[in-house]
Task: inverse folding
């Protein structure tokens, strides 16, 4: 109540102050507005969303994709799964091997179809982070990789009824101009002339570095429809001068923020200033939704192992409880997306980098339809010092209907509120509107009548991960994603048990390291709660000798995983925690974190093609590892214990099955 009284007094006083004047010339020849959107992947960012009850998931997807119901996303970018670690997880490839082809793996197909069902006009965009190792004999820029991308487009169209509007090259890796030109030719020949190439999805010094090459190479220029850069605003990397292709922030939003109000206001500044400072006409936010385990990167401000808002538009990380949270960035997106369309009809009004900033720090952008009959003005005052009034002279505006502009405002107290309308004064060609702008606001003035969205609140009570936990892994359909497991290395799925095909088992299927984006862990999949302490982990393992491998064969069991190093372009890529490894040759090792060996011994070689029971338990500073029914080894951590963390199971680059998984309280 006090906040509202103070705001009314401030606005009443400001209403008597003289207004700044800003002349805006509307023209159908402005730069085409191409949309704002978000990214699922890069990687595994939406993993836990798949496990939500479908009715609850539908509520979440409405907030993200349904027009006039929340973020109203206009572009949806997804990772093309490549079996490689790509930040929060690995995502399954549609071609684990050259002979393999499966268009039902993973959850990105599902998400794209759900997005299209809610908004048929949403644009779809695919990009690879890594790729299976068979491609080009571990060479990404190869004919194999062109074939690989064409098959992905084929599956999107033939199996899922999806047309992919945009296709990237290779996430944040140096481009190959010859390969890009070959890809463009292959797309045309394969029946995808309307799938546009975005290049080069890079950052830093390489953000816009493909432009000079395109200016010198007409074939490359013709092949690339959009130049996309990563984090240009936060890196202060803007292309200077004009260029004949659209410029996009194809991945953006400051990685040092999360989905709270600080992150939301930073997003508001970026969306306006991408255009005002860099002529960028589209922005794609990494990432769509915080649906990963909170020990993984970008879960909070300092990237430690505690939960938080996550660097995402909204939160949905508890499928076992149904809990999710609508966060401030949803409303920030809505201020632009709900009052525009990326159908080729909306354009930006030309701007002046100083005239589009008010004297107390607010910025604004103006968009209109090419007919000049609809207009949307987005004003952010997130860093303003004082309240101010501004009069916009909208030259050439032709209001399609009498009345005023709808007035939508977001403050931390009242997100995305329709507060009335602002009268349109004057006559053609010089209509004017005047508005008072207080600090800490996001305002949209629009001739569009639509608008709406959910309350910012937590839905359904939060609960810890269920414990004790048991899953016999025997009741899943072939190829299914197994509930609550999040793959960090390799690719894991339900397949028929090798000993009883009427049952399923949890199967690791990748047989060689993939072409990496960052460093790749050996196959491992996480589950559980970062607060777990004294836990006993059990599972049965089947080493499959029918598929040959040249890589070391082992089974591994992890507890108290408290830190994750998978988002790491160089160096080791193992979880930090306690883990026990049983090699097929009989070597047994118990580790702590990356490099400390607590115990090592040599046993008889383990048998293949039969189920072997394993138990790994940690209680206080004591660790026990049981291999088979009779061999039990023990170790201690004398230098200070890891207090808590998640669980995981793993293996090498070979075909291995797991059943009868359990996590229970360990005994002394």
Result:
């Amino acid at each position: 109540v006090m906040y509202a009284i103070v705001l009314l007094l401030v606005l009443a006083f400001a209403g008597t102050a003289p207004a700044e004047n800003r002349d805006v010339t509307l023209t159908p020849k402005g730069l085409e507005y191409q949309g704002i959107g978000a990214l699922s992947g890069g990687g595994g960012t939406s993993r836990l969303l798949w496990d939500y009850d479908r009715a609850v998931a539908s509520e979440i997807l409405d907030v993200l994709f349904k027009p006039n119901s929340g973020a109203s996303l206009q572009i949806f970018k997804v990772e093309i799964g490549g079996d490689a670690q790509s930040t929060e997880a690995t995502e399954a490839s549609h071609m684990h091997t050259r002979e393999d082809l499966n268009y039902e793996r993973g959850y990105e197909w599902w998400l794209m179809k759900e997005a299209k069902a809610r908004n048929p006009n949403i644009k779809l965009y695919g990009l690879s982070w890594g790729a299976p190792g068979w491609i080009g004999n571990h060479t990404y820029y190869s004919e194999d990789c062109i074939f690989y991308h064409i098959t992905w487009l084929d599956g999107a169209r033939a199996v899922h009824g999806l047309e992919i509007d945009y296709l990237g090259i290779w996430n944040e890796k140096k481009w190959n101009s010859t390969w890009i030109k070959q890809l463009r030719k292959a797309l045309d020949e394969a029946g995808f002339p309307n799938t546009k190439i975005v290049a080069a999805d890079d950052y830093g010094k390489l953000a816009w570095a493909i432009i000079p090459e395109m200016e010198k190479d007409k074939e490359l220029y013709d092949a690339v429809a959009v130049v996309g850069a990563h984090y240009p605003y936060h890196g202060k990397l803007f292309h200077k001068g004009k260029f004949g292709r659209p410029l996009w922030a194809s991945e953006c939003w400051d990685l040092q923020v999360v989905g709270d109000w600080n992150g939301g206001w930073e997003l508001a500044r970026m969306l306006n200033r991408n255009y005002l400072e860099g002529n960028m006409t589209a922005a794609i936010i990494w990432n769509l939704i915080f649906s990963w385990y909170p020990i993984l990167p970008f879960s909070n401000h300092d990237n430690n192992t505690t939960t938080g808002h996550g660097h995402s538009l909204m939160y949905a990380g508890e499928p076992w409880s149904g809990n999710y949270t609508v966060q401030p960035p949803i409303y920030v997106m809505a201020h632009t997306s709900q009052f525009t369309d990326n159908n080729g009809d909306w354009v930006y009004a030309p701007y002046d980098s100083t005239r589009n900033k008010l004297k107390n720090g607010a910025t604004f952008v103006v968009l209109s339809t090419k007919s000049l009959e609809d207009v949307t003005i987005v004003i952010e005052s997130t860093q303003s010092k004082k309240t101010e009034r501004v009069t916009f002279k909208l030259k050439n505006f032709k209001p399609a209907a009498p009345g005023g502009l709808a007035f939508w405002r977001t403050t931390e107290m009242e997100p995305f509120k329709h507060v009335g309308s602002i009268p349109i004064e004057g006559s053609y060609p010089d209509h004017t509107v005047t508005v008072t702008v207080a600090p800490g606001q996001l305002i949209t003035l629009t001739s569009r009548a639509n608008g709406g969205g959910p309350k910012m609140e937590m839905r359904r009570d939060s609960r810890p991960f269920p414990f004790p936990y048991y899953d016999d892994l025997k009741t899943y359909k072939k190829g299914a994603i197994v509930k609550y497991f999040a793959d960090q290395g390799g690719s894991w799925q339900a397949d028929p048990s090798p000993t009883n095909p009427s049952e399923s088992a949890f199967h690791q299927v990748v047989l060689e390291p993939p072409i990496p984006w960052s460093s790749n862990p050996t196959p491992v999949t996480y589950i559980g709660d970062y607060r777990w302490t004294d836990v006993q982990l059990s599972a049965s393992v089947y080493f499959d000798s029918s598929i040959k491998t040249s890589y070391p064969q082992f089974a591994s069991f992890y507890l108290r995983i408290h830190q994750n190093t998978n988002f790491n372009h160089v160096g080791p890529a193992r979880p930090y925690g306690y883990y026990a490894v049983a090699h097929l040759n009989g070597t047994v090792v118990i580790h702590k974190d990356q490099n400390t060996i607590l115990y090592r011994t040599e046993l008889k070689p383990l048998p293949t093609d039969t189920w072997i029971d394993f138990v790994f338990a940690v209680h206080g500073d004591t660790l026990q590892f049981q291999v088979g029914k009779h061999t039990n080894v023990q170790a201690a951590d004398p230098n200070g214990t890891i207090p808590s963390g998640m669980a995981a199971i793993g293996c090498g680059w070979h075909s291995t099955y797991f059943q009868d998984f359990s996590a229970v309280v360990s005994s002394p």
Observations:
- The first strand starts at residue 20 and ends at 25.
- Residues 1-15, 302-306, 566-572 have pLDDT under 50 and may be disordered.
- Residues 496 and 504 are 4 Å apart (CA to CA).
- The two ends are 56 Å apart (CA to CA).
